[in-house]
TrEMBL record:
InterPro entries reported in the protein's UniProt record: 4-PPantetheinyl_Trfase_dom (IPR008278), 4-PPantetheinyl_Trfase_dom_sf (IPR037143), ACPS (IPR002582), Ppantetheine-prot_Trfase_dom (IPR004568)
Gene3D superfamilies documented for this protein: 4'-phosphopantetheinyl transferase domain
GO terms, molecular function: holo-[acyl-carrier-protein] synthase activity; magnesium ion binding
RNA-binding listed as a keyword: no
Protein name as annotated: Holo-(Acyl-carrier protein) synthase
Stretches of the chain forming a coiled coil according to its record: none
Taxonomy of the source species: Bacteria, Bacillati, Bacillota, Bacilli, Lactobacillales
SUPFAM superfamilies documented for this protein: 4'-phosphopantetheinyl transferase
Protein keywords: Fatty acid biosynthesis, Fatty acid metabolism, Lipid biosynthesis, Lipid metabolism, Magnesium, Metal-binding, Transferase
Length: 100
């Protein structure tokens, strides 16, 4: 999908996320992109808004650490945000927990 619609990648991912995304190919690249989309949607819903005027895809950045765990590195909230993402076949599941 990303190869057919590169503007979609730029809409969803921040520049640093794009650099990480470009390290992957095939199914792993698709999982990364789908995971970031879902994590950012989950983040916005945890804020009580959903993606839109209050928070955009570019307002939230989630980078994998050295062990592959997603870490929220940029967000519109002042507290701590915890992220979790899992992939099973064609499914992605995400969870965001916001702390004050």
């Amino acid at each position: 999908m990303a190869k057919q619609h590169p503007q979609y990648v730029k809409r969803i991912l921040t520049p640093q996320e794009i650099r990480q995304y470009q390290q992957f190919t095939g199914q792993r690249a698709n999982e990364y992109l789908a995971g970031r989309w879902s994590l950012k949607e989950s983040f916005a819903k945890a804020m009580g808004t959903g993606i839109g005027k209050a928070v955009s895809f570019q307002d939230v950045e989630i980078i994998d650490n050295q062990l592959g765990a997603p870490i929220v590195t940029k967000s519109p909230v002042s507290g701590v945000a915890h992220a979790s993402v899992s992939h099973t076949g064609k499914l992605v599941m995400t969870e965001i927990i916001l702390e004050d």
